[in-house]
Every structure is written in C-alpha cells, then in structure tokens.
Amino acid sequence: MIDWSQCTAVERIEGKVSGAWLFKDSRVPVKALFENLEAGATVDEFLEWFEGVSRAQVEAVLRLSMQDLTSPP
Question: Which CATH class is domain 4-70?
C-alpha cells in the first residue's frame, strides 16, 4: 500500500472530502487520477478536467506509485 504521507503533492485533512488523500490545495481525490487513467484518459485530459491540479503534482503521485510497485515487500 502506498504511503501518501511521503508525497508533498497530496494532503489529508480530516473532514475534507471524507478524509481522502487529495491533491494539495484542491478537493480532487488522488484516486480520481487512477480511476481516470484506468478508464483510458490521458494525463493531459485529467489536467484539463481538474484545473486545480498541476502537472507537477500528478507526476509526483505517479512517481510514488511506481516506486511502490517496484519496491520489495
């Protein structure tokens, strides 16, 4: 499981969007990125649809998720 607390591009605030991990300074859940990518969207489309999220934030989230996939248990 990914430890999102290690990623400065996201935040979790109790009571904001049910305590989900969000892209920092937005109300966009991190899971929205993965759901949209899995549905066939591109990063550019995601950024267009969710204007409060920056490319740097998306890249940081994807980088951490890839590290989690490649690190030994």
Answer: mainly alpha
